[in-house]
Amino acid sequence: MHRNLFLVICGLFVAFGGMSWDGQAEDQKSPDIRRPIPEGPLGDTIRLGRDLVENTTSHRLSKPFVGNALNCTSCHLKNGTDPQAASFLGVATAYPAWSPREKTVITLEDRILNCFMRSCNGIRPPQGSEVSISISAYITWLSTDQPIRMNPERPAGPQAVPQLKADITQADDQRGAKLYSERCASCHSENGQGDKENPPVWGARSFNDGAGLANVVQLASWLKVAMPLDETDLTEQEALDLAAFVNSHERPKFRLSEHLPPKEQLGTFNSELKMEDGDAGR
After folding, report:
1. For residue 278, which of 66, 175, 208, 210 is within the disulfide window of CB 3.0 to 4.6 Å?
2. Stated pTM of the model
């Protein structure tokens, strides 16, 4: 695509994408992101969180926990302030929320840390760490003055990406291959490995198969509203075909035990998920 086709992952898309549970997203006024960040230690923490979201792979605090080439803003465009593309706006109001994937109620902090394991293919940072608190503070600041709207169905905010009502059996990865070559390869290369400015969309340096975007319909839903950046005009079928093509390629396998830190650094891993292979659901 003309610019970053997939901009995929620290993928926090899994964390904050998905459908709005109550159908009221259209009626909720977006938080005013022009408001000044508070002074003092809280403001410093919010600014640090914003920096970590933008520079997840290179910042000294977050880099040790990232296992691929994706920053959080790779999926959450404009540092999560784009109202369409896996927005962070209002997200904090949905937590604590029920997580079908983790089979338990989780906090915003849990969700962020789990994204490091899946979309960033890395190690879960400790709860209460500077990374965890700072990103949580930034996302919470983006929900200032919004009403609490805890989500009983899934961990998704009020401005989450609408999931396509697509029939996955109609996805055609051969059509997707042609579309990719025509509209995506100029940024992400024919081999899907991207470059310094554009993230890889498959292979060892992309998200693993436990991430939400490893689900074809979820990836298609994101592509429909986010790409291409300068001409967001994919049809639902084109988005579905592209997603099928991208996810037909190899990517890292998710093994839970490989993404958890040593027990003494874990804190509390709030999940009832026991199996080694985590699915790409929410």
Report:
1. 210
2. 0.85
